Amino acid sequence: MTQAPRVYGSERDDLEPGPQPGRDYRELTGGPLDGQLIEVTGWTEEEITTGAFLITPHSAYGPGGRASYGPTFSRPGGPWVWEGDTP
């Protein structure tokens, strides 16, 4: 059985941590959140094209550090790539 990707921000014990119908997601590639999805439902186009700093327990700065992810402009609507970590 193939497991659906985990959505960023879902809890490890969530019964359904995968994507939900009718919602918009971007895949996170590279870095500490590789393979997870971020829900962007309701985000403005500016927010989506800016990307996000996401809290992660696995950053280069330890728990609570942030991983920067941004869109791949050559693939609109495609995955967000890891840009590095920040405290």
Textual characterization of the structure:
The chain is mainly beta. It has a domain at 23-65. The chain has one helix and five strands. It has one helix at residues 45-50; strands spanning 25-29, 37-39, 52-56, 65-71, 80-86. Strands 2-1-5-4-3 form a five-stranded mixed β-sheet. The model has no long low-confidence stretch (mean pLDDT 88).
Short description:
The protein has one helix at residues 45-50, and strands at residues 25-29, 37-39, 52-56, 65-71, 80-86. It has 87 residues and is mainly β. Strand 1 (25-29) and strand 2 (37-39) form a beta hairpin.
- Stretches where pLDDT is under 50 for at least 5 consecutive residues are none
* Beta-strand percent range: 25-35%
**Helix proportion range:** under 10%
The largest beta-sheet arranges its strands as 2-1-5-4-3
Mean pLDDT: 88
The CA-CA distance between the termini, in Å, is 37 Å
The 3D shape can be described as globular
Computed over alpha carbons, the radius of gyration is 13 Å
Number of helices: 1
Largest sheet: 5 strands, mixed
* Alpha-beta content class: mainly beta
Series of H and E elements: EEHEEE
- The number of strands is 5
